[in-house]
Amino acid sequence: MEASISFKNINRIAIPAIIAGIAEPLISLTDIAIIGNVEENPVEALAAAGIVGSFLSAIIWIVAQTKTAISAIVSQHLGANRLHAVKTLIPQAIYFNFAFSLVIYFTTAFFAEAIFSAYNAEGLILSYSEEYYKIRALGYPLTLVTFAIFGVFRGLQNTLWAMKCSLAGAAVNVGLDFLLVYGIDGLIPAMHLKGAAYASLAAQATMLIMALWFFFKKTPFHLKLSFNINPRLKGLLLMAANLFVRTAALNFAIYLANAYATDYGKNYIAAQSILMNIWLFFSFFIDGYANAGNAIGGKLLGARDYKSLWELSKKISKYSIFIALILMAICALFYTEIGLIFNKEAAVLALFSSVFWIVLLMQPVNAIAFMFDGIFKGLGEAKYLRNLLLVATFLGFTPTLLISDYFGLQLYGIWIAFFVWMLIRSSALVIKFRRKYLHKEV
User: Fold this and answer.
1) Which of 26, 258, 389, 405 keeps 20 to 30 A from 218, CA to CA?
2) Alpha-carbon distance 100 to 249, whole Å?
């Protein structure tokens, strides 16, 4: 199994995963950059896009955890040379995702006004948020089915197919954003925020169509549904349920941050929207190596190759930190210019610039946390990941945010809380992994 943890093989999985991973936040960043520069109410439109984007990410992250569960199970069975045992499981998991996405759509679209009021949105920001969300939410079935298929690809140690799908979707989104948000005189009316929502739907549809093509043409699986429940479905759904809870805690932290920022004022939530989406972009970028750890780690566990598993953790840690340092250096070099891409309001830019350095400083810590997250998911350690996120969120992030708010730190306090959150996650994962696998590797 030495070849599995070679630099070439790790990067064969990680680099396409990085490109595929950043395509989704790139869609949101494109929306925010374009919406933040419209002529009509740019600050309110930017704030609405940021709030809705955070809520969408929360929902998608929570319900798309079946992707990670599918990836872990497929990779473990691949390592044990038993793929035949999960052939009926895959369509059952994909149809589950589709049915669940419909439930999510109907329950959230109906209560959109109440949901975004809970984010402290009001007036024009609330109106924009509700309108934008009701269109974007139509994409839940498209995205969740696509993610389930991407989980199959990753479990088969192939992230190239997902990368191609994601790049095509990002290209469609960027092109349609310019056409639909700004419009073309005499041909296409300017649709502003609604135009960005329709562009995102088209991008999601593009990714799903391409993912289905690769699924049917390149994998040994099919979508023929067997009503004899695969015995592994219960384990997959249990793993996904633990990851649901974990991701719900993760997104509670993001919700709380945005709710506090909105309460501070429209300029604060506009700046927070930019900061959060850049943080998410960095997270998905670094997460490419976590995806490699997820896929390869599951395969090594299936083969009971603990020595290679230990070496994998060390190598991927180095690569992830290196990527984080490169991102920090680039952003430090273009510190002022980055804010101008998203908004031209002086007050928003001043708030953004005053806090952006904290987002940059935490990137190496994020890299370690995300990398071990990926490996633990591949090993099926969903219960531990769930408990750790609950501790980090409710005993780390939330108290820090409340204390910071009491002392009037505002956006500084929000990002200090995120830093504490990531420190708890990264340190606990490293300690757990060392205790469990350091002595097994010999």
Assistant:
1) 26
2) 19
Show the tokens assigned to 292: 């490699």
With vertex at residue 158, the alpha carbon angle to CA 234 and CA 317, rounded to the nearest 5 degrees, is: 90
Q: What is the distance between the alpha carbons of residues 35 and 41, in angstroms, rounded to a whole number? A: 10
3-state secondary structure of 188: strand
Instruction: Please tell me the number of Cα atoms within 13 Å of 59 on its side-chain side.
Output: 26
Chain center to CA of 185: 36
Distances (CA, A) of 428 to 290, 400, 437, 438: 16, 18, 14, 15
The identity of residue 426, as a single letter, is S
Hey, which residues does 188 pair with through a beta bridge? 184
Alpha carbons 284 and 183: distance in angstroms, whole number: 31
- Residue 207 identity (one-letter amino acid): M
**One digit per residue, pLDDT tens: the chain, 442 residues?**
555 667 677 778 778 877 776 666 677 777 777 877 765 777 788 788 878 877 887 777 666 677 777 887 888 888 888 888 889 999 998 998 899 889 989 989 989 999 889 888 888 889 988 999 999 999 999 999 998 999 899 889 888 999 999 999 989 998 998 888 887 877 878 788 888 899 989 999 999 999 999 999 999 999 998 888 888 888 888 887 887 888 788 888 988 998 899 889 888 988 888 898 788 778 877 777 777 777 777 777 777 777 877 788 888 888 889 989 998 999 999 988 888 877 778 888 899 999 999 999 999 999 999 888 888 877 778 889 899 999 999 999 999 999 999 999 999 999 999 999 999 999 999 998 888 766 554 4
